[in-house]
UniProtKB/TrEMBL annotation:
Keywords: Electron transport, Membrane, Mitochondrion, Mitochondrion inner membrane, Respiratory chain, Transport. It comes from the Eukaryota. Its main location: mitochondrion. It comes from Blumeria graminis f. sp. triticale. GO terms for biological process: respiratory electron transport chain. It is found in: Mitochondrion inner membrane. This is BgTH12-01469. GO terms for cellular component: mitochondrial inner membrane. Belongs to the complex I NDUFA5 subunit family. Residues 133-158 are annotated as: Disordered. PANTHER family: NADH DEHYDROGENASE [UBIQUINONE] 1 ALPHA SUBCOMPLEX SUBUNIT 5, NADH-UBIQUINONE OXIDOREDUCTASE 13 KD-B SUBUNIT.
Length: 236
């Protein structure tokens, strides 16, 4: 039903879903890169679950469902994914130091045996709600100058220039899934829209961290009395 609402909410049918477009659910917008987000979140969850004892029932059950959903997402590949991976590998090989800094714009990480490039999103400004500080905003003029082909850094004072020898490397996003591919993932996982699946995955990742901090696998400090956890068992 909700997948039908998403399709009805689109004014013009398209092969690809438009990022930020309404999904048919209030407050939930179309995700820009659902496949990459799910793969990274699931890998992070499996990585975190490895810190729990193998005997933990929570770890066993969460690992099972996470691996199952991850396999569904992984099996659906957008067109041009293999070529994209090769291009990224070449960039990594040519600029290894640019991806070693965790606090940088982009960095390389490994989760659950899989390698990822994490790209920090650019901060979004809302000029309607942002209070003016009395200073002139030069961002718009800078953007216009850059669009016109002018190199603003060449005329900047030396103390205002970025002295970091590592240049900022922009990585193109993973190729998009088509609307039919997203629908395929949603049908196989059967847990609502892919944006809802992402919310659940992110919530599970946070829960794993809480469970680790609480050490839920350890014995209770106060031992339960005999029969405390026995409820209405049928006696034969």
């Amino acid at each position: 039903m909700r997948r039908s609402l998403r399709k009805l909410s689109a004014a013009q049918p398209s092969r690809y879903l438009e990022s930020g477009a309404p999904t048919g659910i209030t407050g939930l917008l179309t995700h820009a890169s659902p496949r990459a987000t799910l793969m990274y979140t699931y890998a992070s969850t499996l990585d975190a679950l490895a810190q729990l004892p193998e005997s933990s029932l929570y770890r066993q059950s969460t690992e099972a469902i996470t691996k199952h959903r991850m396999s569904i997402v992984s099996a659906v590949e957008p067109a041009g994914l293999a070529e994209y991976v090769e291009r990224v590998k070449k960039i990594l090989a040519a600029n290894p130091s640019n991806f070693d800094n965790y606090n940088g714009h982009t960095h390389h990480v490994e989760k659950a045996g899989k390698k990822f490039i994490v790209i920090k999103p650019k901060p979004e400004r809302d000029e309607l709600t942002e209070e003016w500080d009395g200073m002139m905003d030069e961002s718009s003029s800078k953007a216009k100058a850059e669009a016109g082909g002018e190199n603003l850094l060449s005329s900047a004072p030396e103390d205002e220039m970025d002295m970091n020898t590592d240049q900022k490397i922009d990585i193109e996003p993973e190729p998009q899934l088509t609307a039919s591919q997203i629908d395929e993932i949603e049908s196989k996982i059967d847990a609502g829209l892919i944006e809802e699946v992402i919310q659940v995955a992110e919530g599970e990742l946070k829960l794993v961290d809480v469970m680790i901090k609480a050490k839920v696998w350890e014995d209770l400090e106060e031992k339960p009395t005999e029969g405390q956890w026995t409820y209405f068992n049928r006696e034969t």
